[in-house]
Design goal:
- The chain is an alpha/beta fold.
- A 5-stranded mixed sheet has the order 4-3-5-14-8. A 5-stranded mixed sheet has the order 11-10-12-9-13. The chain has a two-stranded antiparallel ribbon with strand order 1-2.
- The longest helix is centred in the C-terminal third of the chain and has 19 residues.
- The chain starts with a strand and ends with a helix.
Length: about 475
Amino acid sequence: MKRVIALVLSLLMLFSLASCADEKTESAAKELLVIDPAEYGEVTLKIASLIEGEGAREILGKIAEKYSYDFPNVKIEYEYFTSEDDIQAILQAGAQYDAVEVRGEDRLRSYVKKNWLMNLSEYIASWDEGYTLSTAAKTVLKSIIEFDDKGNKIAVPYVIPYGIYYDALYYRADRLSELEIDPQNPEAIETDYNGITAPRHWNTLLTMAEAMRALPSNAAEIDIALSDNATDYNFIDTIYWSKIGFDRIDSGAAAYYMYANRELGEEYGKTIFSTPDAKEALGYYKDLNERLIIDKFEGKGETAAIEAFINGEANFLIAGPQGIKLCEEGMADGEWDVVPYPVEKGGSAVRDDFRAWGITWNSSNSDVMAHFLRYLCNSDNNTYLARELSFIPVHSDAIELDAYFNDSKFWAFTSMGKRTNAFKYATQPRMYEAYDGFADMANKLYADFLKEKVTADELLKTLDDYWIAAFEEDGKLW
């Protein structure tokens, strides 16, 4: 019997529609799927991957070998592609792959909309390590909301995440050490990140960047280098969220909409753009762009921004954890450091990205494929791969398995993951049809704002009207 249904206790209700702040561990009797790959005969699993680097691919190969040792009837074949468009092309063509790599929410939503990925609900619900998934990983699992036959909203997982990415603030520690810092000056520098003197808030980052540029020893032409995944509307959104505060946003999955207290008669549909804090955050954004030299390295990839920082061309860098390994290789100890992403007092901001595996709609080996993916993404294997690829592990117990994530420069990212009261997953309301084409509209609007073609009030009203109309047309989709 290939598929066995057993009555067991569910360890976690992973797909509760409650907000992150209200998540509670519950247990309930459920019929969960138990898979024994040995009972499926000879199976070959074909996986389309975007993972680069000989070291990482070697690790994938070793994990596959260990799995096949336990299940000799299962053969695992990776095929590596160079771009996400290549993955999309094989899905479009209906090519026979059992699993594909999915990077980011836009790709996930696109693939789900085209019915290219399988619903993984039963596989996730029966995963014995599902309860150790981090808050960010669980949010990825719950990012797709659908309606059941009775019209109830349910979260449907279409991928198993293997890596989480968010940005932190890298800075030239050697140049910062030359600054004369008055610890009594609240506009100076915050100093409570593991004893490291570094900016925590946008206004202190601005002050420090200007002071570093004025140093006689400064050779940098760029104040802040931004990786191309942190530009324009994505960048300004993190400033909005950090100023407004996550407790006032209803859901990280639709972080343009405010929390509504129904007991007080408040209605859903109000946006962050209608708040005074949004206007103040927009002022930070304008100050950063007018008073600092910011290079967004658009279209050049994150590595280009990191290399500019390493070469001394930039004093600050906003980038993901992959910058750590490159900085360690290209800079001397004491020349640089990294701290959590800037936030405002009382605010919170994290714009996550993710990498994941999805099982294709036409896989003939979905049960065994799911069993292997859960093995590949278990706590031990995921932590091992995370260190090699410099991404944030998807399991909350990673720091117990490998001290690297807490004792090295990686501590900045680990700290953000642990401080869930200050750093939360947030993204635009991408489940709305209105999101299609929004990026181009928003980026042009912000460009016009910096050129003073539109005022702050006009910009915020345009965005407020846009997302109110989306809500009125489609209702509450999160």
